[in-house]
Task: structure prediction
Amino acid sequence: MAGMSGRALLMWDEAVTRYDFGSSHPMDPVRLALTMGLVRAYGLDKQVDVVAAPPAGDSTLRLVHRQDYVDAVRAASANPRAADIAYGLGTVDDPAFAGMHEASALIAGQSVAAAEAVWAGEASHAVNFAGGLHHAMPGGAAGFCIYNDAALAIARLLELGVERVAYVDVDVHHGDGVQAAFWEDPRVLTVSMHEHPRMLFPGTGWPEETGADGPGEGAAVNLALPAGTGDEGWLRAFHAVVPELIADFRPQVLVTQHGADTHFEDPLAHLAVSLDAQRAVQAACHSLAHEYVEGAKWVALGGGGYSVVDVVPRSWTHLVGIAGHAPVDPESVVPSSWRDEVYARTRELGPGRMTDGRTVAWRSWDEGYDPANRLDQAVLATRRAAFPLRGLLP
Result:
């Protein structure tokens, strides 16, 4: 393997903004353009190596997706009116659009290349904030996701001979597509922390979902949080479950998904997490990579996030700064040049600082728990369902 580089990669090709379901769809690609604009406004593009990779080809896409599904995406991409709804295409969530295959394969290509570069030692960390499209299934689109770039990146790592990959997903929605892709594979530990499936799409991610019987048992861990969970509970839950699992599994690569839709301003969900807590979990994932992964091999992806001006660009700019070992001061005033760009693109006023003004604090699980508390009940349910399968105390 090549010598380890301390530099981080930022995967970026302007054409990822062509992943566009239309003006009435909540996943507005302006969130990607504004994030990259804020990255540049802070000079982070000089602290990381900004690179573009080619789109994923069919042989790569087939690592997760069925060829008949790839063919259906390509057909809908050429003629959106002919989209086959049997593949989840042409629905309200996943409307077909011209160039859909190309844009989706390009995003997937960035995540796969990020994983390849980190495994090869070309960089210690790599970020693709256009990625994290975790709902796509082997044979169908779902939840705004056409190709599952996160699962493809992991599958490529396995193809390259990696024996242990940990995937940690903190999007407000369950990382169902990634879990499904590796349900029977003990080489991949999937951990998803999300709003409770009783309240939110996709309706899965119960604590009892722990992997296939046999070798896959214990390969999936799900932490389903009550609606209304705020910073203290969200951080308490993360730290009560994730670090212990990573320390035990000792992955060779850590892949994380940082959907920003846990935020209290997000219109599509019901958690009440601040930008400051999101940043704290990004930093915690970075620390876990340095502490438990040889060479600190870390691939960080974006995901959901539908407060496209106020939340997503700030959250993912923090992620890029953390990965680049050039963290952005939360108290810093957002550069006026970026706020001008926001107004020019959206006619909205951008946020003024890189913080929501919240103090980040949580109570450690080691200090005890309250069996009557709903958040603690959620953590207990996860630990009791999953931890013994991994030889850990609940």
